[in-house]
Amino acid sequence: MPRQVRGFDAQAAHAHLSRKCRRLGAWMKKVDRLENGPIPDDARWRQRFDPVDALARAILFQQLSGKAASTIVGRVEAAIGSARLHHDTLGRCDDATLRACGVSGNKLLALRDLSAREARSEIPDLRAMAHMDNDAIVATLVPIRGIGRWTVEMMLMFRLGRPDILPVDDLGIRKGAQFVDKLDAMPAPKALAQIGERWGPYRTYASLYLWRIADIGSGVAKPVDRSQG
Question: Which residues form the HhH-GPD domain (predicted)?
Fold first, then answer.
């Protein structure tokens, strides 16, 4: 397929969604007033990106606070003598050493599976991903132990800058959609996928607002950072 450019025009996305979906547009205005303007382009779309390292870090961050996960990542980096988490560097330490860094048994198995797949050239690099569609990237990465669809969707949104991603299993997204459509309960993932059709081709940008809408509607002053899988 043609090469996919990382990122998209947030201003164009804002204008499109505001025009196409009246209910979402009204909430977007409310968010913009509270946050002193529309959600901008994400700087990470222009930054160097290493898929294998990002997946390894996503595994280590799972189910931990950012501070606790960062501590463990720092210990792992010190143990392997590198800030690059890959097959060759993670292979410098045995399992006991990584466990001593605070890596759980399940996460250790996930890191070893990721490393083995990288060694077999099963993990596409950034150049290869540029020529893959979203579904192909998901299908390639979710077989990795410890990597679910949500984690890949966060990569697609926040690192690859794909414009049309809607993480229908995310509770914040579902809660935001509930507020937008004034529903009695959060829509099920399948129903949300159908609702989200009206937000294409900028469902990623709509998702950024849905997270904020969920926080505002629930009385949370500031949205949490959901980009770290």
Answer: 60-215
pTM (two decimals):
0.90
How far apart CA 191 and CA 63 sit, in angstroms, is 27
Residue 82 to residue 88: CA distance in whole angstroms: 10
- Residue 183 CA to residue 18 CA, distance in Å, equals 20
pLDDT digits 0-9 by tens, 164-211:
999 999 999 999 999 999 999 999 999 999 999 999 999 999 999 999
Task: Give the single-character DSSP code of 93.
Answer: S
φ, ψ for residue 59, nearest 5 deg: -60, -45
Q: What is the pLDDT of residue 226?
A: 46
Six-digit token string for 224: 């949490």
**Contact of 41 with 7, CB cutoff 8 Å:** yes
What is the distance between the alpha carbons of residues 148 and 92, in angstroms, rounded to a whole number? 26
SS3 117: helix
Between CA 167 and CA 154 the distance in angstroms is 8
